[in-house]
Amino acid sequence: MADAENLVAEIEALEEKLAEAKRSINARFIGQPRVVDLTLSALLCGGHGLLIGLPGLGKTRLVETLSTVMGLNGNRVQFTPDLMPADILGSEVLETGNDGSRAFKFIPGPIFCQLMMADEINRASPRTQSALLQAMQEKQVTVAGETRVLDTPFHVLATQNPIEQEGTYPLPEAQLDRFLVQIDVNYPDRDTERDILLATTGTEEDEAHQVFTAEELIAAQTLLRRMPVGDAVVELILDLVRAFRPEDPSAPDRVREVVAWGPGPRAAQALMLTVRARALLQGRLAPSPEDVIDMARPVLTHRMALSFSARARGEDLSSLIDEVAAGVTKVEAAA
């Protein structure tokens, strides 16, 4: 009983701190609470986020603000077609000492930080994109045959232009799967855009203030994993993820018709973590089935693909996820 009471007290204290962090972020990144919640969810879960949207929607501003509020050492890398892996990871250079001796010295790249912003990640070549694979999964990099551990915590928040734009390279499936969530950044509505104009074109702007330290964020990530998840939520996660695998017996006919390949176990793990984060950010002590449905799109969209014929017909993954999720929920309720 005492352990349960302590856990409740810790969760409630973290919820208050998260509410303060959200206020500080929303003061600078105006009118996009859904984007802020999803980005914070990625950090709370110890994962990485992929922000997709057109240029000029404030993605860079959001990441810079997060670095301040969460107390993380951040670096920004502008991805371009001529960017090389060594520009991210670092490289060894030959140095000559005062006595004439020569030795190789490692010059760390910008990836050696706690929060890395990969700006316009899909403008770099596939070879350069792949330089992040080991770092995102194992929190370490191998350069010149030597493995070097990255700072803790380590997060990548990447921004991506829509792939229809010229000069972009689609991210490989293996790398997409390493992003915990895909965060769509859309145009603001008229009232929000008016607030942005008034807040950002005057002589002064609201400044973000630090709420967390790196150590406190690590503690929050540990606490999130201790958060209880009910059996009903666990079963719903499993049913939902397996429903999008065309070869699974439980998959609806609609999925078999239009889906080329579905999400793997990492998607279920991501849902298990992000539903806890959503509950925390909303001031609740445990996740609910509604959290699973709400997080389905950000967790699953980039982990599955439509068949060629479905894309040719103009099918949409987001609509499919909503449709199948609604069907799975009805079955769960009936059971």
UniProtKB/TrEMBL annotation:
Matches recorded under Gene3D superfamilies = Magnesium chelatase subunit I, C-Terminal domain, P-loop containing nucleotide triphosphate hydrolases
Q: What is its EC number?
A: 3.6.3.-
Among the Pfam families in the record, one is AAA_lid_2
Work out whether the entry's keyword set contains Nucleotide-binding. yes
- UniProtKB keywords: ATP-binding, Hydrolase, Nucleotide-binding
The residues covered by the ChlI/MoxR AAA lid domain are: 254-322
Instruction: Decide whether keyword Nucleotide-binding is in the record.
Output: yes
Question: Which SUPFAM superfamilies does the entry mention?
Answer: P-loop containing nucleoside triphosphate hydrolases
Q: Please state every residue range assigned to the domain named ATPase AAA-3.
A: 48-181
**Organism domain of life:** Bacteria
* GO molecular function per UniProt: ATP binding; ATP hydrolysis activity
Protein family: Belongs to the MoxR family.
Q: Please give the name of this protein.
A: ATPase RavA
What organism does the UniProt record list as the source?
Answer: Pelagimonas varians
